[in-house]
Amino acid sequence: MLLTLVSFLFFTGLVAILTWWITRRDDHDSSSGYFLAGRSLTFPLIAGSLLLTNLSTEQMVGLNGAAFTDGLCVMVWEVACVVALVFMAWFFLPRFLKSGVATVPEYLGIRFDHQTQVITNLIFLLAYVGILLPIILYTGATGMVGILDLPSMLGSLPELLGIDPETTALWLIVWCVGIIGSIYALFGGLRTVAVSDTLNGIGLFVGGFLITGYALSMLGGEGGISAGTQLLLDQQKERFNSIGSPESSVPFGTIFSGIFLLNLFYWTTNQQIIQRTFGASSLAEGQKGVLLTGALKLLGPIYLVIPGMIAFTMFNGQNIKADDSYGLLVRHTLPDHLTGFFAAAMIGAILSSFNSALNSSCTLFSLGLYKNILRQEASEKEVVKSGKIFGWIVAVVAMCIAPLLANTTSIFGYLQKMNGIYFIPIFAVVLIGMLTKRVPSLAAKIGLVAGFAVIVIGYFVPPFDMIVASLHDYHFLGIVFNWLMILMLVIGEIVPRETEFVQEDVGAVDMTPWQLAKPAGIILILIVFSIYVTFADFSVLGSNRS
């Protein structure tokens, strides 16, 4: 255990020192430098930061937990998102960069009006503070408790104080990660986040593949990885199916409704994720970074799905919680010195998502609310300072909420359900704004408020929640999205804008597209279809219906 702890501290400290060294001369005082990295990010940093911001423990712990329960079909969250990333490179990113915006609400302010921007800002902030940040901290703490076996490290001290060891370990990790992540995000700005993300991404990539390799080797015994792979295929033949059955968390039909929409929002409109693309030095660099992320996501099932399936074979019948399976697998398969290394990479993943969400929250508050509403005459330094103060408040709130999620059955399922509350209305409004020229701001405001309200009522208010329960959550989200699109288009026909919206190029960056963006995107989409066809067994749909 001492070796594990020493290697963990070494690798964590190494990333911190390298990040400080690389970014020590960066501009952290101006809003452009702090929130957009001075629009200087190149494609490796964009791809590394995009990938690791996504690859937090809600993915490592949550998605492997979902694979433990449902098998290969949950790869939809990794593989299908590649299509969304292609759309981001082709359609969404050029429009965002052309307007020179720092936030998605700022774009909606340009396309519609100031009130639309404020409403979107508030929805994003409520979602990040109440949903996203606490989930990142909770899943991170859950994974670390399992990997480092913290209750054992704490000994009998919690019991002497009358406190449950698991609860003590959970609170301890949540607050440690929250404080360290806040320091990264609030003192360093976006470039510091992007650099630390990229460095941690290397460790997480290596560690993720190591776990799959060591676990398969342990499964195969003397036969090694190949024997372990064959054993896994033989024992879980029916679970190696890209087609989700009606009983799974991702039935096949939902891929074309809510799941695709959630992926589209996440990779094209989610401020926490796409903010690093706003800091691209040019459109070409941004497109290369986004498409490189898509290529790397194709490898995701190897370390985000397969380990969960291996854990199912190893621990099935031991009555363990699905979300605990990944941490247990890591502790049982990796040598002590590599366990410390991977724990450091996991901490990096937690920090990445946490400080990215926190940095985005600060950006939304400072540029969207403080500068636009509260103090329009504020200087650059005052705007940055307001973001830091707001960030610390948000971080403390998230650290208090996170441990309260311990009773959640499936954290990944809970995350996707809660995300739909704000993903769907914001994405519908952004898409209408980009596809039409005469739909007025009134339609956008009604779409945001009505969409948010309808989903909340459908989830939580009787008897409407019974109607939603008769469907699937993702089908419900698809229905709401289509209803919102039709509603806003109808309003646009009844009371259209007096003049057509014309998007201006503000000259923030070079808008010359990457020449290979279209062929690279087509290749990625073809690979996605090939993966699905290779592992598809449609008979599961017929057998479940009968």
Automatic annotation (TrEMBL):
This is Putative symporter YidK. One of its GO terms (molecular function) is D-glucose:sodium symporter activity. It is a multi-pass membrane protein. It is found in: Membrane. Its main location: membrane. Keywords: Membrane, Transmembrane, Transmembrane helix. It comes from Gimesia aquarii. The keyword Membrane applies. One of its GO terms (cellular component) is plasma membrane. It comes from the Bacteria. Belongs to the sodium:solute symporter (SSF) (TC 2.A.21) family. The chain crosses the membrane at residues 6-22, 34-55, 75-97, 118-148, 168-187, 199-216, 250-269, 290-315, 341-369, 389-406, 418-435, 442-462, 474-495, 516-535.
